[in-house]
UniProtKB/TrEMBL annotation:
The record marks F19 as: Substrate discrimination. The gene is dinB. Keywords: Cytoplasm, DNA damage, DNA repair, DNA replication, DNA-binding, DNA-directed DNA polymerase, Magnesium, Metal-binding, Mutator protein, Nucleotidyltransferase, Transferase. GO terms for biological process: DNA repair; DNA-templated DNA replication; error-prone translesion synthesis; SOS response. This is DNA polymerase IV. Its EC number is 2.7.7.7. The active site is at E109. It comes from Komagataeibacter oboediens. It catalyses: DNA(n) + a 2'-deoxyribonucleoside 5'-triphosphate = DNA(n+1) + diphosphate. It is an enzyme of class 2 (transferase). Binds 2 magnesium ions per subunit.
Length: 361
């Protein structure tokens, strides 16, 4: 029997300042101090910030030099992704004791459909509390949880009582809860889309709800149906178990801007090798290769090419990435970042077809 979306029970679990909290757990000297995980160099970026650092306005993806201006006492530690992955595996093992319907979003957050849990519980709220208690007991870390009848509202709810809290949005509460929020707080509406909505006089969930679907379609295309639904507290997306990986990529930010072709090609070769090694480890290849070029004024371009024939090996990936990079030279200004991504993923034993290229840029 199909479960009515209004009667689903979805939990969004989000670890609190995950990378930074792991570092503070493992080094008592870092506890209570403003901490950033990342590189402190001139081109360094904050990967994660502790709550002590966030009080000064330090945020992830912020350049390190700006973070230090905001918080001169900020302590930087290099990331330890092998440790974070191991802790994430512990956390996902805890999830699996409650439900098989788990959709990981990253190392530190996931959706769980607990409509039919593996063990009897009086409510989804009780399940969320038990999950958070077990995470604390087994990892020494805290998590926040949002509980609702769909994914959109569960994710909103998990932010509502952070850190180390949980919040429930019931079917009766959903539409009114959404109505009061600024659209920039909606998961799925980024800064650029929020600015477009503001220009149309749409600033809150209530403003969005008052828009005819035809107007949303005219301005937002295929995303209009999603916006129309979430403005009413409606989101019928299922929790996707074993959602396939969409892409594998790597990028590098430089301490000193790159201007010449030889230096850029060395980086492209290194990035392509790293990406191909990750593909090989997962027995994957892909048909689309994309490069990203970010200049020292933060303007960036993305160029990609899709082929019917998948990438064969590291050399093939280097050749495709190099071909995409060549038209960018000589660069109009210094390059501060290069990236390589493979997407359109498929198993390595997929049959190759004759190559046919389509360029987008």
């Amino acid at each position: 029997m199909t479960q009515s979306p209004a009667h689903r029970r979805i939990i969004h679990v989000d670890m609190d300042a995950f990378f930074a909290s792991v570092e503070q757990r493992d080094d008592p000297a870092l506890r209570g101090r403003p901490l950033a995980v990342g590189d402190v160099g001139r081109r360094g970026v904050v990967a994660a910030a502790s709550y002590e650092a966030r009080r000064f306005g330090v945020r992830s993806a912020m350049p390190s030099v700006i973070a230090l201006r905001k918080c001169p006492d900020l302590v930087f530690v290099p990331p330890r992704f092998d440790v974070y992955r191991a802790v994430s595996a512990q956390i996902h093992d805890i999830f699996s004791r409650f439900t098989p319907l788990i959709q990981p979003l990253s190392l530190d957050e996931a959706y769980l459909d607990v409509t039919h849990p593996l063990q009897p519980y009086p409510s989804a709220t009780a399940i969320a509390q038990d999950i958070r208690d077990r995470i604390r007991a087994e990892t020494g870390l805290t998590a926040s949880a949002g509980i609702s009848y769909n994914k959109f509202l569960a994710k909103l709810a998990s932010d509502y009582r952070k850190p180390d809290g949980q919040f429930v949005i019931t079917p009766r509460m959903g539409p009114d809860f959404v109505a009061t929020l600024p659209v920039e707080q909606f998961h799925g509406i980024g800064p650029a889309t929020a600015a477009r909505m503001h220009a149309l006089g749409i600033r809150t969930g209530l403003d969005l709800r008052q828009q005819p679907l035809s107007r949303l379609l005219r301005h937002f295309g295929k995303a209009a149906d999603f916006y129309y639904g979430i403005a009413r507290g409606i989101d019928e997306r299922p929790v996707e178990v074993n959602r396939p990986r969409r892409s594998i990529g790597a990028e590098r930010t430089f301490e000193v801007d790159i201007h010449d072709w030889a230096a850029a090609l060395d980086v492209i070769m290194d990035l392509s090798t790293r990406v191909w090694n990750r593909c090989t480890a997962r027995s994957l290849t892909g048909i689309t290769v994309t490069i990203k070029v970010k200049y020292n004024d933060f303007r960036q371009i993305v160029r990609g090419r899709t082929a019917l024939e998948p990438v064969r090996d590291a050399t093939d990936l280097v050749d495709r990435a190099q071909g995409l990079l060549a038209p960018c030279f000589p660069p109009p200004r210094g390059i501060r970042l290069l990236g390589v991504t493979v997407s359109g993923l498929r198993a390595r034993d997929a049959l190759a077809a004759p190559r046919q290229l389509a360029l987008f840029g």
